[in-house]
Design brief:
By secondary structure, the chain is an alpha+beta fold. The chain has 8 helices and 6 strands; from the N terminus they run αβαβαββββααααα.
């Protein structure tokens, strides 16, 4: 019963998305990323039925069956040493193949791997583990780990920015009794998309954002300065923000 309660909330959203959208991207052979909540039998089965693969975070505390297998197993290990800016980093990868995802007869077999990063003083600075249906070997484990870690980068640079980077996304919820909250969320997402495109394509925009530090400070300058000064064009405005002074057009 505990397993069913844990799997149900995650499957509700992910299963709905897969049912409606997976067919449109199945020809691309997508690899789905997800946190520990999604590393359960219903979602893994749904992903495979949709023609995709997966790399999902797997925490020991919430995957007792896998943890028990790891306890007595001889894990294959691969070490990688890198030196960047004079500092040495040691990355240790461990892996085990064909592990049951849960303690049932119909459990799907997955490949487990972990990554640990140590600094030049031997202190562990990062640790995580994942399950996947992709082949895990000494040649592929580093790339798979990088893909698994990319989910956090995506989450941090989108959802977290939308909450804390000046977009105030969470403030959109609770407004209106019918559709206002949805409209505000849509406007937030459109603004974020346009700002991302501007950072990639407009050098003056990028320079202004970098000069102000956190993006919310850039928005503060943008809102304040346009209340008092009329600018000739966008470059004039952005160059003035970057220089923290009103520059001639």
């Amino acid at each position: 019963m505990r397993t069913q309660r844990r799997e149900a909330p995650a499957f509700a959203g992910a299963g709905y998305w897969l049912a409606w959208h997976s067919a449109a991207v199945s020809h691309l052979r997508p690899v789905y990323l997800g946190d520990d909540l999604f590393a359960c039998q219903p979602i893994v089965a749904a992903i495979q039925d949709a023609g995709g693969n997966f790399i999902l975070t797997c925490k020991p505390a919430s995957h007792q069956t896998i943890t028990e297998y790891l306890h007595d197993a001889e894990l294959q290990e691969y070490r990688q040493t890198t030196c960047k800016r004079g500092k040495r980093t040691i990355t240790v990868y461990r892996r085990l193949t064909a592990v049951p995802l849960r303690a049932t007869e119909d459990a799907i077999a997955v490949n487990w791997f972990s990554i640990e990063i140590f600094n030049d003083k031997g202190k562990r600075t990062y640790h995580n583990s994942f399950v996947t249906d992709l082949a895990v070997s000494a040649d592929t484990v580093a790339e798979l780990a990088a893909c698994g870690r990319a989910r956090w980068k995506i989450e941090n640079e989108t959802f977290n920015v939308l909450k804390t980077g000046g977009y105030n996304l969470e403030h959109s919820f609770g407004h209106g009794k019918q559709t206002l909250a949805n409209v505000l969320v849509a406007l937030n997402l459109l603004a974020f998309a346009f700002h991302t495109a501007a950072c990639l394509a407009v050098l003056a925009w990028r320079a202004a954002v970098i000069a102000r530090g956190p993006k919310y400070r850039f928005f503060e300058h943008l809102r304040t300065i346009t209340a008092y000064v009329v600018f000739q064009h966008w470059d004039h405005l952005l160059q003035s923000i970057a220089a923290a002074a009103i520059r001639p057009p």
